Amino acid sequence: MFRFSSHRSKAIVSMESSAMTDIIFLLLIFFLLTSSFILRTEIPVSIPKSTSTITEKEQPVVVTISRDGVTYVDEDKVEFEELATALGTRLAASGSKAVIIRGDEAVNLGVMVRIMDIAREAGAEKLAIATEQESRRR
């Protein structure tokens, strides 16, 4: 006949701390990779509004032109005549070939185009103009 064991095996329930640590670590990596890195500078500039925006994934070199025409490269004040040298140095040091131009709304378009030409000559492969996203009207 059949023999039935009177001893029941009891499952041991335990939670390993290493599994919980792995889960927390993976969540941390997920949130770091999916968070948006916002480009912030302390130079006061009123940049133009736009309905479409694109975020840059790599760390670009930022050229800022203030309302009064002062030029900055990554928050360092640079004379306009020395812009090509400063941009070339920053592009080589950063490894990025992207330049973002933050120009005040009052800056002449001709100045922006000259800065784009200087950036191309300094080795920039990607150029972008920084804008703020405008709320859409319906």
Describe it for me?
- With 138 residues, this protein is α/β, with parallel strands linked by helices.
- The protein has a domain at 49-133: Nucleotidyltransferase, domain 5 (2-Layer Sandwich).
- Helix content is 32%, strand content 18%.
- A five-stranded mixed beta sheet has the order 4-3-2-5-6, with helices on one face. A two-stranded parallel sheet has the order 1-7.
- A hairpin with a 5-residue loop joins strand 2 (61-65) and strand 3 (71-73).
- The chain starts with 16 loop residues before the first helix and ends in a 5-residue tail after the last strand.
- 17% of the residues are buried.
- The mean pLDDT is 77.
Main features:
32% helix; alpha/beta; two-stranded parallel ribbon; elongated; 5-stranded mixed β-sheet; Nucleotidyltransferase, domain 5; 138 residues; single chain; 18% strand
Overall geometric form:
elongated
Strand content: 15-25%
Q: Please mark out the parts with pLDDT under 50 across 5 or more consecutive residues, or reply none.
A: none
Number of strand segments: 7
Largest sheet: 5 strands, mixed
CATH class of the domain at 49-133 reads Alpha Beta
In which range does the helix fraction lie? 25-40%
* Terminal CA distance: 82 Å
SSE class: alpha/beta
Mean pLDDT: 77
Compute the CA-based radius of gyration.
27 Å
* Spatial sequence of strands, sheet with the most strands: 4-3-2-5-6
CATH fold call of the domain at 49-133: Nucleotidyltransferase, domain 5
Assembly classification: single chain
Give the count of helical stretches: 3
**In the CATH hierarchy, what is the architecture of the domain at 49-133 at level 2?**
2-Layer Sandwich
SSE ordering: HEEEEHEHEE
